[in-house]
Design goal:
heterodimer, A: 313 residues, two-stranded antiparallel ribbon, 12 helices, 12% strand, B: 355 residues, alpha/beta, Rossmann fold, 37% helix, globular
Chain lengths: 313, 355
C-alpha cells in the first residue's frame, strides 16, 4: 500500500513539476492550476475507490485525473493542444475527461460539477449498480448556492456520493477567513443530515481509511451521502507554474509546516532505497515518454473546429 | 373523425409513450407529481412510472439542472420541466456552461441527452417575471437545440423527437396554446428538427409566427383575406436549427416578410430569421419587418398588457401596410377599419388563473 501511495504521489508531483518546467516556453498555451502540495487528497480518495466508481473534479484536477487512472499521455497532449489529448485539444487543462477511467469531467466554473456528480450518482442508484461517485471541489465552492442546493437534494434522495472538499485555505488569493464568517464547512453538510468529517494535515492514510470505510457503507445506496473536508495546502500560485509567497497575501512561514509534513517526503523516507529508486526510475521514464508523445502528436485538423458541437444520430 | 387532443394532452401522451418505451426516460421538476400535473402535462405519470422516474424536486433550479445533466451523462434521458421559462435564468450556468458545451469541450467523449421544457406565461396578470419568452438566449449558444411547436400535432412529434435526441433540447411551450385542440394521431411519430411548417399558403406576404404568435398570424390572415390579401403563414417549429430554406422560398415568392415573436425583438429570434433570409436572398428590395413584445417589462394590469403583445389586429395592420403602403393606413400602429368586427384571441380572454 505504501508503495502504491508513493508511486501515485511521486508520479503526480513530477508530472506537475514537468508541466511547470516547460510552461515558460509557452508550449502550453492555456491556463494551468497545479495540484502540487494537494496530491494526497486525490490519491487517498481514489485508492479507496473501485475502478468502476466515478469522480468529477475542478479546474485544479491534474492530480485527480492521474489518481483515478486517467491516461498520462492524453493529459499532456491535451495541455499541448494536440488531437491525441483526452479532449482532442479542445478542452485543455480545465476540461479534462477520461470516461474509461471513470473520470467524468471538470469545469472552469467553481462548483459547477457538484450537481453533475449527484445526478450521475442518482442514475447509478436507480440502475441498481453498486458503484459510487466522488465529487471534488474546493473550499471556495461551498460559497456557491449550488453547493447547498445539491447537498439538500443528495441527502433527500440518499444518493451514493462522497463530497470531497479539498480545503487548501484559499480561493484564488483570498483566505477562507476573508470569505466565510465561520470555519464550519462540515457543519454546513451536517445540517442537511449527512455525516461530515474533517481530516487534518493532508494525511493520506487517514483519508484512505476513512473514505474506504465510508464508501463501502454507501455502496448501492445503502447509506446516504457523506462529506469529507480534507485539509491541504496549495504550494504554487492559483494559476500558473510559480510560487507566490512574495505576493503579499500569504507567507512562506505559513507554508512551512505543510512542506515539512509533505506525505511524499515521509512516505519516500519509509521505503527501502532500491525499491524507491526503481519506482522513481519507472515513473520518470513514463513521464518522459508522455511529453515526447505530446510533442510529436499533431494538432487537430481545421475541420475539427466544427465536430462534436452535437452528437449526431 | 380526427382524434382531437389539446396541446397539453399531446405533451402528456408523448411523455407517457416515451417513458413506457424507454426506461431511461425520466421526468423531474417542481410539482411534476402533484395533482395539477403542470397543467395536466404530467398528470398520471407518477402513478404509472413511480417516484424514481417522476421526481418532484426541491426549489433548486440551478442544482436540479446539473443533476439532470449528470443523470444524462450516466445514460438517463431526463425531461426537466419548468412551469415558467423565467425560472431558467437560475439554471443558465448549467445549461450554457455544461449542457451546451459538454460534448465539445470533452472532445466528443460524452453526450447530454436531455429535454428542458419551458412554459411561457401570459394573461391574467402574469406580470414581469412570469411572461418572458427567452428562447433567443438559447438560440445564441452552440450545442443547444431550441424548438417551439405551436400545434398539438407538432407538440407530440417534437417532444418525442426531443426525448430521443442525444443532445440538450430546450422545448418552448406557451401557456395559452396548452388549451388549443388539434388533430393528434394515436400512433407514435416524430417531427424532425429543422423543418418549418407552412400553416397556410398565400402569395402577398409571408407571416412567420413563433409559438403562440403562429395562432395570431393565422387570425391575422383572416382579416387580410377580407382585404383581398393572401398571407402565407409559417411556423418555424424548430428555432435552432432553423429551416431558413422554407422561409426564404416563401419570401422569394411574396417579396414581404413579417416575423412575429412571443418575445422581445432586440437580438431575438425575429432578428435572426430576418437576417438569415436577407443573407440568403441577397435582395435589398425584400421588405422585412418584425413584431414582438413592446420593449418594456411586461405590465400586470390588463389594459396595459393588451398593448404589450402583438395580436391579430396589429399583425394584420402592419402586414396590410407592408403590402399596400399608405393606401390603407398611414399610421402603422393604428388598427385599420376592417369590415369585420375585431376578434381578440379567445384564449387570452378566457384564460383564468390561478394556475
Amino acid at each position: 500500500m505504501v508503495e502504491n501511495f508513493y508511486r501515485a504521489l511521486y508520479r503526480i508531483r513530477r508530472v506537475e513539476q514537468e508541466i511547470a518546467r516547460v510552461y515558460p516556453t509557452d508550449i502550453i498555451k492555456s491556463p494551468i492550476h497545479l495540484s502540487i502540495g494537494q496530491e494526497a487528497v486525490s490519491v487517498g480518495v481514489c485508492e479507496a475507490l473501485q475502478p468502476s466508481d466515478v469522480v468529477f473534479g475542478t479546474y485544479r484536477s491534474h492530480a485527480l485525473y492521474l489518481a483515478k487512472g486517467g491516461d498520462l499521455k492524453k493529459l499532456i497532449s491535451e495541455l499541448y493542444g494536440k488531437v491525441t489529448g483526452c479532449a482532442k485539444g479542445k478542452g485543455g487543462s480545465m476540461h479534462l475527461i477520461d470516461t474509461a477511467a471513470g473520470f467524468m469531467g471538470t469545469s472552469a466554473v467553481v462548483g459547477t460539477t457538484i450537481p453533475l456528480a449527484v445526478g450521475y450518482a442518482y442514475a447509478l442508484k436507480q440502475s441498481g449498480k453498486d458503484s459510487i461517485v466522488a465529487s471534488f471541489f474546493g473550499d471556495g465552492a461551498v460559497e456557491e448556492g449550488v453547493f447547498h442546493e445539491t447537498l439538500n437534494f443528495a441527502a433527500l434522495k440518499g444518493v451514493p456520493i462522497l463530497f470531497i472538499c479539498e480545503n487548501n485555505g484559499y480561493a484564488i488569493n483570498s483566505h477562507q477567513s476573508k470569505r466565510q464568517p465561520m470555519d464550519n464547512i462540515c457543519e454546513r453538510a451536517r445540517v442537511y443530515g449527512m455525516p461530515a468529517e474533517r481530516i487534518e494535515d493532508n494525511d493520506i492514510f487517514e483519508i484512505y481509511e476513512r473514505v474506504e470505510r465510508a464508501s463501502s457503507e454507501i455502496r448501492n445506496g445503502r447509506e446516504g451521502p457523506r462529506l469529507f473536508e480534507c485539509m491541504t495546502y496549495r504550494w504554487r500560485e492559483h494559476v500558473g507554474p510559480n510560487e507566490d509567497f512574495d505576493a503579499g497575501y500569504r507567507s512562506r512561514s505559513e507554508a512551512q509546516p505543510w512542506f515539512e509534513s509533505d506525505p511524499l517526503k515521509t512516505l519516500g523516507a519509509s521505503l527501502e532505497i532500491d525499491r524507491r529508486g526503481q519506482i522513481e526510475v519507472d515513473v520518470e521514464a513514463e513521464i518522459y515518454e508522455a511529453f515526447v508523445f505530446a510533442e510529436e502528436s499533431p494538432f487537430p485538423d481545421e475541420d475539427e473546429l466544427y465536430t462534436d458541437v452535437f452528437t449526431e444520430a | 373523425m380526427a382524434r382531437m387532443l389539446t396541446y397539453a394532452e399531446s405533451i402528456r401522451e408523448a411523455t407517457e409513450n416515451e417513458m413506457a418505451r424507454d426506461s431511461s426516460v425520466m421526468v423531474l421538476g417542481i410539482g411534476v407529481d402533484d395533482f395539477k400535473g403542470v397543467y395536466g402535462t404530467t398528470t398520471g405519470l407518477v402513478e404509472k412510472f413511480g417516484t424514481d422516474r417522476v421526481v418532484d424536486t426541491p426549489i433548486s433550479e440551478d442544482a436540479m439542472t446539473g443533476v439532470a445533466i449528470g443523470a444524462a451523462l450516466a445514460g438517463l434521458r431526463p425531461i426537466h420541466v419548468h412551469i415558467r421559462m423565467d425560472f431558467l435564468l437560475l439554471a443558465m450556468n448549467q445549461l450554457v456552461n455544461i449542457a451546451a458545451k459538454g460534448r465539445y469541450m470533452y472532445g466528443g467523449e460524452v453526450c447530454v441527452p436531455m429535454v428542458v421544457r419551458a412554459i411561457i406565461g401570459r394573461s391574467w396578470g402574469q406580470g414581469a417575471q412570469h411572461s418572458q419568452g427567452l428562447h433567443s438566449f438559447f438560440m445564441h449558444v452552440p450545442g443547444l437545440k431550441v424548438v417551439a411547436p405551436s400545434t398539438p400535432y407538432d407538440a407530440k412529434g417534437c417532444l418525442i423527437q426531443s426525448i430521443r435526441d442525444d443532445n440538450p433540447v430546450v422545448f418552448v411551450e406557451h401557456r395559452l396554446i396548452h388549451y388549443q385542440k388539434g388533430h393528434v394521431p394515436e400512433v407514435v411519430y416524430t417531427i424532425p428538427f429543422g423543418q418549418a411548417r407552412v400553416l397556410s399558403e398565400g402569395s402577398d406576404i409571408t407571416l412567420v409566427g413563433i409559438s403562440h404568435m403562429a395562432a395570431e398570424c393565422l387570425r391575422a390572415k383572416r382579416y387580410l383575406h377580407d382585404m383581398d390579401l393572401r398571407a402565407e403563414v409559417i411556423d418555424p417549429v424548430s428555432l435552432s436549427p432553423l429551416d431558413i430554406d422554407t422561409i426564404a422560398a416563401s419570401v422569394e415568392k411574396t417579396g414581404k416578410l413579417l416575423v412575429v415573436d412571443t418575445a422581445w425583438t432586440a437580438c431575438g429570434a425575429s432578428a435572426e430569421i430576418i437576417v438569415q433570409v436577407t443573407e440568403r436572398l441577397g435582395n435589398a428590395k425584400t421588405e422585412c419587418r418584425r413584431m414582438g413584445f413592446a420593449p418594456v417589462t411586461c405590465p400586470t394590469t390588463k389594459n396595459l398588457e393588451n398593448h404589450f403583445y402583438p395580436d391579430a389586429q396589429k399583425i394584420a395592420s402592419v402586414a396590410c401596410r407592408m403590402v399596400n403602403g399608405d393606401r390603407v393606413s398611414t399610421v402603422v400602429d393604428r388598427i385599420p377599419d376592417f369590415s369585420i368586427p375585431p376578434e381578440v384571441s379567445p384564449e387570452s380572454v378566457e384564460f383564468r388563473g390561478p394556475f
